[in-house]
Amino acid sequence: MYKSLQRILAVSAALFTLAPAAPALAEAPMVKTQVPGYYRTMVGQFEVTALYDGAIELDTKLLKNADPEDLNRMLARMFVGNPKMQTAVNAYLINTGGNLILVDAGAAKLFGPTLGFVVDNLKAAGYDPAQVDTIILTHMHPDHIGGLGDPAAPPAFPNANVYVSVLDNDFWLSQQAAAAAKPEMQNFFKMARDIAAPYQARGKWRTFADGTEIAAGVRAVKAYGHTPGHSAISIESSGHKLLIWGDIVHSHAVQFALPGVSIDFDFDQNQAIATRRSLMYSLAASKTMVAGMHLPFPGIGHVRADGKGVYAWVPIEYSPLPKPGQ
Question: Contact, 93 vs 49, CB < 8 A?
Answer without folding.
Answer: yes
